Input
Amino acid sequence: MPYAQEMKSCAALALGVRLQTNAGISAEAVRTGEVMLCHDAERNPRVDLASCRRLGVRSILVSPLRHYRRTLGVFEVLSSSPCAFDERDVATMQLLSSMMVAAISRISSLHHAHLSRRAG
Output
């Protein structure tokens, strides 16, 4: 079962976890601004292998959620099967990530407008 989470590689399964930007495939996605695809955690030095094994994760697809140059978080999908994702999934991830950033931006704008109306 895939999970969409903000996380450090595979180290946690909870929303709101602070991302360590010095290591891991999620950190690399944040640094580069690109979607990262790991076909097999058993063969990829960028992942925390012990955590992936503990969680039963073999494939990882991770996208940074960026608004302009600010990283809001990451969107990560995990699978217990190796080679679970392909280039079509990467394209879908890019589209979904863009939609998530647009929604977050819209909600933030509405929230600020609401606060301005209440204050003034």
In short: The chain is about 40% helix and 20% strand. Residues 25-119 form a domain with the Beta-Lactamase fold (CATH 3.30.450.40). The chain has one domain: 25-119. Strands lie at 36-38, 59-67, 70-79.
